[in-house]
């Protein structure tokens, strides 16, 4: 490359979802969100809360792409983020250094962020617990990153195998993180009541002794099953 690339490329303005729709997801299980999207939307299974006591969140994505061993873009995302936002930090799965530690998490909390999610690693677990912000990552390391760029903020990223755009909605719990694209948000919220109702009915049946659901019984008893014993 003849010319040096910009240290940061930032998009500060993006469409935001209806706050009422975001609030409608508060407290929802990630599994219900996946069911409302026909079985998909979860980040890679390795991305989990670093402190299980700080797992539940819902918020609007503000993205950044840090690249490996760098976190300059995180500060650009911090500059964009507001109350209730989730910093989504793409590191390309790099595991040589952390993306953030307790100090950056504290800054995010001070901005009113709802959570921080990365496909990379984080550091300072004791401090992160004291900050009290839900932090989801692929693991922990004491190694620290540089702050040199290049990076982006506010632009689409891929984290944990899922495309995330600023303005999408993220839901997290002990099972992991689910991304709800902004254009699907209203439909997901509309489906939640029926999903909750069916789940509650099946849960009650299991507690009452159910050992085999009707749909499985019908298949097992049908001519679609070949017995060889």
Radius of gyration: 20 Å
Number of helices: 7
Order of helices and strands: EHHEEHEEHEEHEEEEEEEHH
Query: What fraction strand?
Result: 15-25%
Kindly identify the CATH topology. Glucose Oxidase, domain 1
Runs with pLDDT <50, length 5+? none
Helix fraction by DSSP (H/I, runs of at least 4): 25-40%
Do you know the CATH architecture?
A: 3-Layer(bba) Sandwich
What can you see in these coordinates?
It contains seven helices and 14 strands. It is an alpha/beta fold and 229 residues long. It has a single domain, classed as Ribonuclease E inhibitor RraA/RraA-like (Glucose Oxidase, domain 1, 3-Layer(bba) Sandwich). Strands 1, 2, 3, 4, 6, 8, 10, 13 and 14 form a nine-stranded mixed beta sheet that branches. The protein has a three-stranded parallel beta sheet with strand order 5-7-9. Strands 11-12 form a two-stranded antiparallel sheet. It is elongated, with a radius of gyration of 20 Å.
